[in-house]
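Quick log. Single chain, no ligands specified.
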Amino acid sequence: MNALHQTWEKLIEEKIEKKQQKDPYRPMLHIAPPVGWLNDPNGLCQYQGVYHAFYQFAPFQAEGGLKFWGHCTSQDLLHWEYQGVPLMPDEPYDCHGAYSGSALIEEDTMYLFYTGNIKFSGDYDYITTGRENNTILAVSQDGSTVAEKELLMTNQDYPKDLTRHVRDPKVWKKDDTYYMVQGARTTENQGVVLLFTSKDKRNWTYLRRYKKEGGYGYMWECPDVYEIDGLTVLSVSPQGMKQEGLHYANCYQSGTFFLEGDFHVAEIAGEFRELDRGFDFYAPQSFLADDGRRIQIGWMGMPDVEEHQNKTVADGWQNMLTIPRELSIRDGILCQNPVRELEDWWNQIFFFEGNYYGKMEPCCEWKLTIEKEVSITLAEGLVLRYQESEGIFWMEFTDHELGGGRTIRGSEIKALSSMRILIDVSSVEVFLNDGTDVFTTRFYPKKEQYTVNISGNVKGIYCWHL
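-> predicted structure:
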């Protein structure tokens, strides 16, 4: 631990100690920063039986700033304990930010791969000049402190037709070989994913790239490659996609392609499918749990969106991560559902049928079986509605203040048979048709606004925890 690391550590501790305790919108089950700004999930893993989640963390300002890695641990994927800031921008090759990356667990060692950001002052476009993105390895022997760092690659080691934007390494091992994917932007302004190989985790060789012609954005961030139910998934977060009807309505997108054949030589098969159609979802990352589940967590936020306001800024913090989601494939579609631990945690259950109106707990879940149509109003101003004759599911804020400037999102759905709505104080995650489609948003009810109004031919279960 160098002197700069110690200085940062002391300043962050002082910032947390000075934080006011007023926190009306702090979640019960979701990861949120103790202070400051949170974005991408990083280094997701299970290490010695404990779940670890790191995240992009700007501790000194709720509006963002210099990026560190915050750290949380959990025994059940629901209740997370803040563990400090093990990864800091404290070396010349990461001095302007410890950017996103991943974790690889081998025996008793945690290997953290991440992007070290350097941004020069001057007259630069910061695309082809003016910045460096370095690939760095940090090693931890205990899962909470970094014992050593090593610079692995610089922009000089990446293919020559790329801009300075190469970042977000995701690393895994298959057989006796290590693999890494990174997101990149070419000089032709096309988003691509780079694939590297290594035999020792430190010396990497560029193998090939994944790309898709025709309107898929100028930069692909936060790539992930994994096998599930016999298929290979390529997950990316493109920047620069244009809206097409109800599709791609957010500033940036997150979604998946399938790879056809062995990932060493595979090409992208089929079209891009959005992972979440709501307002607040970006930069997801997945990991393989010890029990074989593929679990994904995303950032419940969106970069570069000025019209969305988060009321937690007034309390000194901003943004959250999604509930961990189990991934599966059904009928050729990647499905997401809350981890099964959530169902076991609820200890209060109320059954109803038909229309329903009443108060609800700030942290609760609604499980609905639906026939043809339904309309649900949460907190007097967030409407979730579907009519089979129209074939579109809508998430709409009719209360501008409740949504902090969020408006309306929709998705074409031929039939809606089931819905799960997870509410956690200032967030809503909606899972349709057993996770085939998902909508995520932040919202900010007043204390007396935690109400629900359901109409339609439905049967439901209301769940909460005492």
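The two ends are 43 Å apart (CA to CA).
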